[in-house]
Design a protein that fits this description.
about 450 residues; alpha/beta; seven-stranded mixed β-sheet; six-stranded mixed β-sheet; 15 helices; 19 strands; about 40% helix; globular; binds flavin-adenine dinucleotide
C-alpha cells in the first residue's frame, strides 16, 4: 500500500486525508499546531466561512455533508445596510433553493479530523512543523515544537496543504524556473463581534450576509449558531492610502467610536465590545499568491492555499481548496498510484482555474464594498436576472457560476466578462426593464456568448 504524507491539518489537508483514506492509502498528516480538538484554540472566538456548492460537493463525496449541514446557517442573499440605517436585501440565487452557508471554521476542521480518524489508515501528528523537504525522495523533515525532536518521514507521495505561508512552497522557490508571485492588498481586515441578543436571539436578520458598503472600506457580518455575528472590517492599512479611514489612523477609543458612529451607526449600537475587539484582535493582511509548477519531482504537490492563496471577497478560498481535493481524487481514480500522471493532470486541471478565481475574488471586492450600493449596478443585476430566466443555460450570472455551479472558474471568468459587456450594451441610456431590447439581447448572446466554452 502506498504511503502518503500530508503537511497541514487545516481545512484542505483534513478533507484530503478522508478522500485518501477511502482509497486505502496509508496517510500521515503532520500539523504544526496543537490538536484544536483538545486545546481551546481561538479563545472562544467564532470565525465563520461561507461554504458553497464546490465545497459541499466535496463534503458529499466523502459522506460528510449531512453532519456539517447541521452546523450550517443558510444565507439567501446580501443584506445591505445604508448609512441611514435602512436595509435592503439582494438575493444571491434565483430563489430560496440557492444559498450560501455560514459555517464555523473550527467546527468544520474538527469534524473533518474526527471523520478522518475513524479510518485506521489515517494518523494525525500534532506540533510537528515541516522545515525541509527532499523532493527527489519524498522525504519531509519535521520539528516537534514540544519535544524539540527532529523526524524524517519518507513516503511515496507528499501533498503540502500547509496554507498561504507554505514551507514546502518556500523550498520550491529554490527550484530553477519556479514561478512565484505574491501581492498584498493595501487593505487589511479585523474581526469584530455583534453578540447575541436576549436568550440567544439574533439582533439582525439571521439568514443573510450583512454588508455595510462604504466605497473604499466595508464591514460584513456572518451569523453564528449562538445568535452572534462575526463581523469583518475591511479597510486601508495606512494613512497614506486610506487617510482617516485606515487602521493606522484609528488608534484610540475616541477615533474608533467616532468612525463607527459615523459610518456604521446601526452596527455600532449592537457592538458593546467594539473597543476590546478592535484593539485586541490582530489586523490581518490580504494576499494573492500564484506559483507554478505545483509539483516537484513528480512526488510532491501543493494543494489549497499553499498553491493559490486568494483574497476572501468571493468566499471561495476554502471552496477552491476543497475542489482541488475533488480533482486530485479523480486523477487518482484514473491513474491509481502513478503519481507522475496523477500530479501532472491535477496541476494541469487546476492551475488555470486557481488563477481565474484569484482574479474573480479581486474583482468582487469592488462589487462588495462599492457597487452593491450603486443604482446602475443594481439595474444591470435586474437585467441579468431577466436574461437568466429567459436563457437559463446560456446566460448564468457570474456570481451563480462561481457559487452555485461547478463550472470551471476559468469559464466563469471569461463568460462573466462577456456577459458584463452585454449588460453594459443593453443598459446603455436605459433605466427600466421595459426599455430593454430583447431582440438585441438575443443576438448579442448568440454573437458573443455562444461561441465561448461552457
Ligand atoms: C478573512 C478571511 C475570510 C475567509 N472567508 C472565506 C469564505 O467565506 N469562504 C471560503 O471558501 N474561504 C474563505 N477564506 C479562505 C480560507 O480560509 C482558505 O482558503 C482555507 O483556509 C484554505 O485551506 P488550507 O487547508 O489550504 O489552508 P489552512 O486552512 O490555512 O491550513 C493550513 C494548515 O497548515 C498548517 N501549517 C502551516 N505551516 C505548517 C508547517 N510548516 N508544518 C506543518 N503544518 C503547517 C497550519 O497550521 C494549518 O493548520 C477566508 C480567508 C480569510 C483570511
Amino acid at each position: 500500500m502506498n504511503k502518503i504524507t500530508i503537511i497541514g491539518a487545516g481545512l484542505a489537508g483534513s478533507l484530503l486525508s478522508v478522500y485518501l483514506a477511502k482509497k486505502g492509502f496509508g496517510v500521515n498528516v503532520y500539523e504544526r499546531r496543537a490538536d484544536m480538538r483538545k486545546e481551546n484554540s481561538g479563545g472562544g472566538k467564532s470565525i465563520n466561512l461561507a461554504l458553497s456548492t464546490r465545497g459541499i460537493h466535496a463534503l458529499k463525496e466523502v459522506g460528510m455533508f449531512d453532519e456539517i449541514n447541521k452546523i450550517a446557517i443558510p444565507m439567501y442573499g446580501r443584506m445591505i445596510h445604508n448609512l441611514n440605517g435602512e436595509t435592503n436585501f439582494q438575493r444571491y440565487g434565483k430563489d430560496d433553493s440557492e444559498y450560501i452557508n455560514a459555517v464555523s471554521r473550527a467546527e468544520l476542521n474538527k469534524s473533518l479530523m474526527d471523520l478522518a480518524e475513524k479510518n485506521s489508515n489515517v494518523k494525525f501528528h500534532f506540533n510537528e512543523r515541516c522545515n525541509g523537504v527532499d523532493f527527489k525522495n519524498a522525504e519531509v523533515t519535521f520539528h516537534n515544537e514540544i519535544t524539540d525532536q527532529i523526524t524524517k518521514v519518507k513516503a511515496n507521495a507528499v501533498i503540502a496543504s500547509d496554507g498561504a505561508t507554505s514551507a514546502v512552497r518556500m523550498e520550491m522557490l529554490k527550484i530553477p524556473r519556479f514561478d512565484f508571485s505574491q501581492s498584498y492588498e493595501n487593505y487589511g481586515y479585523k474581526e469584530l463581534i455583534i453578540p447575541a441578543g436576549k436568550n440567544g436571539s439574533y439582533q439582525m436578520e439571521k439568514n443573510s450576509l450583512h454588508i455595510w458598503p462604504r466605497g473604499l472600506f466595508m464591514l460584513i457580518a456572518l451569523p453564528n449558531l449562538d445568535g452572534s455575528f462575526t463581523c469583518t472590517l475591511f479597510m486601508a492599512y495606512d494613512k497614506n492610502f486610506g487617510g482617516e479611514k485606515s487602521f493606522e489612523y484609528i488608534d484610540s477609543n475616541d477615533k474608533l467610536n467616532d468612525f463607527f458612529k459615523t459610518n456604521f451607526p446601526d452596527a455600532f449600537a449592537m457592538m458593546p465590545e467594539l473597543t476590546e475587539n478592535y484593539f485586541q484582535n490582530p489586523t490581518g493582511s490580504l494576499i494573492t499568491i500564484k506559483c507554478f509548477p505545483w509539483v516537484a519531482e513528480d512526488k510532491v504537490a501543493l494543494l489549497g492555499d499553499a498553491a493559490h492563496a486568494i483574497v476572501p471577497f468571493f468566499g471561495q478560498g476554502m471552496n477552491a481548496a476543497f475542489e482541488d481535493c475533488t480533482y486530485l481524487n479523480e486523477c487518482i481514480e484514473k491513474y491509481g498510484e502513478d503519481w507522475e500522471k496523477v500530479f501532472r493532470e491535477y496541476q494541469q486541471l487546476r492551475k488555470e482555474n486557481a488563477d481565474a478565481i484569484a482574479d474573480l475574488a479581486q474583482e468582487n471586492f469592488i462589487e462588495m464594498r462599492d457597487l452593491v450600493a450603486d443604482e446602475r449596478f443594481l439595474f444591470k443585476k435586474k437585467i441579468e436576472s431577466e436574461l437568466f430566466k429567459k436563457y437559463p443555460d446560456r446566460f448564468i450570472p457570474k456570481y451563480s457560476m462561481v457559487t452555485f455551479y461547478r463550472i470551471p472558474y476559468s469559464v466563469a471568468l471569461s463568460r462573466g466578462k462577456v456577459q458584463e459587456e452585454i449588460l453594459n450594451e443593453l443598459s446603455k441610456s436605459k433605466t427600466t426593464l421595459e426599455e430593454i431590447d430583447h431582440e438585441k439581447a438575443r443576438s448579442l448572446i448568440m454573437e458573443k456568448l455562444d461561441k465561448l466554452s461552457v
